[in-house]
Description:
The protein is α+β, with helices and mostly antiparallel strands and about 140 residues long. Helices cover about 25% and strands about 25% of the residues.
Amino acid sequence: MRPAAVNPASLPAPSGYSHGTLSGNTLYLGGQTALDAQMRIVPGGIVEQFRQAFGNVLTTLRAAGGEPEDLVSITIYLTDIPDYQAHGKEIGKVWRELAGAVYPSMAGIGCTALWQPEALIEILGVAVIPDERLVRPH
């Protein structure tokens, strides 16, 4: 079976990329910044940007039938690691609110800039979805 794009209608329409790519039971989740439905980065700092970016990742995951417990890897790109660390407890609370006590392998990587200049964070991941929940795009 060929890889298939997963592009939930509730996320901004992609142009030149996919929100996710499903290959077999593995969903590769494309990098998500804190873009809202109007294609604007949400205001409010790193905690709110984490909430939006991770929520976007989970939206794509759920469009393929996945749940947070199916995540096997998360990579977080940050323009300001000390800011993220300073808000770690709040970010952890948002994680548990959105995903529960599921903690896949993770990496946090510092970078100088992201695609949108006002973006502070970008999250990408990989999930393996069980057959009984898998939703293949048409």
